[in-house]
Specification:
With about 850 residues, the protein is of the alpha/beta class. The strands form eight sheets. The protein has a six-stranded mixed β-sheet with strand order 5-4-19-18-17-6. A six-stranded mixed barrel has the order 24-28-25-27-26-29. Helix 23 (about 520) links the parallel strand 18 and strand 19 (about 525-530). Helix 9 crosses helix 19 (about 395-405) and helix 14 packs parallel to helix 19. The structure holds ligand MGD (2 copies) and molybdenum atom (MO). Molybdenum atom binds near residues 209 and 210. GO terms for molecular function: electron transfer activity; molybdenum ion binding; molybdopterin cofactor binding; oxidoreductase activity. One of its GO terms (biological process) is anaerobic respiration. Its cofactor is Mo-bis(molybdopterin guanine dinucleotide). This is Trimethylamine-N-oxide reductase.
Length: about 850
Amino acid sequence: MKKNLNSHVENVSDFEQKPLQVSRRRFLTGAGAVLSVPLLAGLWPKSALAQAISQALPQFTALRQAQTGILTAAHWGAFEAIVKDGKMVDVKAISDDPYPNELITMAPYQVHAENRIKYPMVRKGWLEGGPANSQPELRGRDEWVRVSWDKALTLVSDQIARLQKEHGPQSIYAGSYGWKSVGMLHNSRTLLQRMMNLSGGFLGYAGDYSTGAAQVIMSHVVGSMEVYEQQTAWPNVIENSQLVILWGCNPMITLKNSWNVPDHVGQTGFEALKKKGTRIISIDPVHNDSAKFVNAQWIAPRPYTDTAMLIGIAHTLLTEKLHNPDFLKTYTVGFDKFEAYLMGQDDGIVKDANWAAEVSGVDADVLRQLARDMAKNRTMIMGGWGIQRQHHGEQQHWMLVTVAAMLGQIGLPGGGFGFSYHYSSGGSPTAKGGILAGISAGNSPKNTPTPIPVARIAECLMNPGKTINFNGAQVTYPDVKMVYVAGGNTFHQHQDTNALVKAFQKPETIVVNEPYWTATAKHADIVFPTTTSYERNDLEMGGDYSQLYVFPMHQCVPPQFESRSDFDIFAGLSEKLGVQDAFTEGKDETQWLKSMYDDMKTQARAARVALPPFDMFWESNNYVRFPVPEENKQWVRFADYRENPLLNPLGTPSGKIEIYSDAIEKMGYEDCKGIPTWMPPHEWYKGPEAAKYPLSLNTAHPINRLHSQLDNTPLRKKYAVADREAILIHPIDAKTRGISNGDLVRAFNDRGQILVGAVVTEDVRQGVIRISEGAWFDPADPATPGSLCKNGNVNCLTFDIGSSSLAQGNCGQMAQVEIEKYQGPALTNTAHAVPAGA
Ligand SMILES: Nc1nc2c(c(=O)[nH]1)N[C@H]1C(S)=C(S)[C@@H](COP(=O)(O)OP(=O)(O)OC[C@H]3O[C@@H](n4cnc5c(=O)[nH]c(N)nc54)[C@H](O)[C@@H]3O)O[C@H]1N2
Ligand SMILES: Nc1nc2c(c(=O)[nH]1)N[C@H]1C(S)=C(S)[C@@H](COP(=O)(O)OP(=O)(O)OC[C@H]3O[C@@H](n4cnc5c(=O)[nH]c(N)nc54)[C@H](O)[C@@H]3O)O[C@H]1N2
Ligand SMILES: [Mo]
């Protein structure tokens, strides 16, 4: 079976296509597509092609008779947009979405949001002083000046050309991490990098915010990033798993959105487990929605202590002889070293269930029973990623694999572990057809600098010349003079926002492409107004792992105000930099889409799946759903390794699962050793900081948003409390502080303070507070560092250090905090307001 795309890394491919003419006018009027049904009807069932297509894709002809709107798609699903008088007014989910996501109903509000950036804008200080005298301390509170497109493009291209010449590509950070919108052509980040590669290169990043720690440690332990791999297929899990452990995993929420267009098959898997009555245990400091949905048993540890829990479980497995020595011998290396650690041979500390209970706050008996239940049953451990977005976050997934290896069920039907059941429908069986390749970033020039770990950006800006460890290598931070963001929201994604404010005062020039006045846009010098995906034509796959659908994304409404697509913006900059032909390859939007489609069609033909010609596909206002081969429905991760470890070795140095990694041991890091190890985190309930800040923070991904996306829509009414981001507080913690449901609360520590609205609930463990990531940063007084964020951006409270010398992942899911009832003056939330002059 084909290996899956790494869903965070664009499928990079180059293709030479003969541009074919499709009428541009027809292309732009997506609504006209509805009229073309007779064309299809005329073709069917006469020609051989039509017969081949209807055989391979029965859905393409059978579905979508009663079309009402314009078919498009988003991270939250595919839908038809209803447009009246040039305005998007409503949406309708496609009929075969098994779990339509309410977030699609926000599309009209995305297009017509009040805080759209309307025109190219330049910050006054920068416009008057230029990059050398721009008064960078005014970023985030300066006035804005409207300029023409030509002027804005010239200002930016002049800086790119000058910096390339005077300081080289390392002076321009154009990594631009972020979730942008779906679409294989209008991929803002790739387009930015394409333009930069053609005009001299740029400083990029390594890793991501999602799985920074896990993806690096897993490469050493199982030989691949693992977190973005296809999982044992759902039908196989439903049939064979007797016990499912959700370890820091909230799939019914996180499956709502995907990197590509979601197929929402994952939710049907959990629903099937629930119907069958499969036993499920959720291990999470929060009684999350998934645990409630599947009626799971809830075990609530102290946050950030999962590694200790797992070590305690390992001790029970070993001492009660519940482990599988044959599996460990054949398929793993280094268990003896881990065993010595468990038994305390070096440090004199026996790490049994009692020891783990003392660290994690979970009863030793519960841990012992958990070990026994896991050993007795066919057990699938589904690990989420919040547990690795932590200091020493590498250890959690390493320990999950170690416990799974001790159980010896890896590679068996319904057994082992899976780190992507909660993400983009891992386990949704892979279809057979073609895969769309997006536009590529092209080749990097020879003098391209070494990328920095993505979450070290603020430290990099503050410390040019500093060298850090990173996965056995060293990275030296260059002197960054320009930051270019397209498709990400740095002021949401990054930890320790108040430190970021300072770091963002370092570069000479900051450029942002954005549809909205986010905090990142507000902290820039030059802002290009960008279209939403509903204002342009594109194509996208549906189902990241399943590759089940190909969706057309028809333009629904014209570009709003003076906004332009990222493609047009970078084509414009390329023109000024003299590389326009190489950037566009002489193709317009239509020609790009047709060439991508044709390339995929060729692949599909090789897989014996006939596709309609591009024009017909586009005009049908329909999507393609590829067939799913029966054998893929029973696919088992690691089955081939289990069957023949010599023929199918893992990509690790030993070819086996590495419970001990010689490669890591030799790196000699204090904060990531050769075996999985419990190390107290930077901040936690037993650390010295807990005296002042006793509450442990949980920053889970929001139920009704994608990160910061959609915070500026009416969906907010569903989750905002007193018009701020919600904070979940245990009744006892609330009572001792005199806080009631609905109260305004100030949450604070030494790094920052935020205003949030209280939800008093027993759904959180005592001593834990939850504030979801993604509320837009809105400082009460932008001139005073660390002033109260009026909207509740949780990253004002988190700290900005790497997970360890190994992965340098972010630690967004932890911090010690105190809260109090807010007694200060009434404060208007201005997070979604437009700045002065705009
Ligand atoms: N404390 C804490 N912090 C976290 C996390 C956590 O768990 N806790 N999670 C982390 C994780 S896993 C992630 S992935 C990051 C996510 O961080 P981001 O990916 O930065 O978050 P988004 O809110 O999706 O930001 C995307 C931005 O792109 C813009 N955009 C959308 N479409 C387009 C387009 O077509 N063109 C352009 N130019 N812009 C567009 C949107 O308006 C939005 O501002 O956050 C990380 N931060
Ligand atoms: N609705 C929605 N879906 C999304 C996203 C979104 O923003 N909104 N973002 C997408 C992205 S980019 C990503 S990376 C994934 C994120 O997927 P995850 O990283 O798995 O999601 P989180 O919500 O951060 O964490 C999952 C669970 O871990 C728990 N948890 C946190 N800390 C601990 C701990 O110390 N111990 C234990 N045992 N549990 C803990 C949280 O309470 C939460 O219920 O989701 C994707 N899906
Ligand atoms: Mo993520």
